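User: Hey, quick favor. My workstation is busy. Could you predict this chain's structure for me?
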Amino acid sequence: MSIVTIRNVEFFNNPARFLDPYHFRVTFECIAPLKDDLEWKLIYVSSPGNEELDQELDDCLVGPVPVGVNSFEFEGLSPDPSKIPTEDVLGVAALILTGSYRDQEFVRVGYYQNTEYDNEEMKAAPPDKIQFDKLVRDISTKLRVTRFQIKWDVVPQSQGLPAAGAAASAAVPSANDLDGDDDSKSNGVVS
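Assistant: No problem, here it is.
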């Protein structure tokens, strides 16, 4: 069971210029108080076959995190154009938001991002040298969420408490735990 569940990710600037920062709000629910902060990262993936080219655009720590619905605004830098192979600039790339607790990734939200020129002439006949100031990006509203089981160090508030109207029980001691002299015990019953 996950202690934290993403409820919504809202991009404030979509579509946008390729070189504009990403600006969005993450809304999530937490069902137990956390001892440590949550870490969120925004990653740009231009070449799916080469993880070394992934760019971590920004990260942030969020905490303390109270029980309930929480949200925060996140702003991440645009990708560094010099780190994107020319053949991977135009077309589809991936944008990934990850959530971690104590260095354990518990959620990954992936989006497709389409990058193209902002005018029909350049779309039809792209220049040999990429002109990043003429590019626009559009993040797809179709997303892919992957959840990972991690070891949370907390217990949801609803666990461990009896439900309303439920009978509570106490631990039953063993015969060896009862006080009294050995002579006064008979088959675990105090006489």
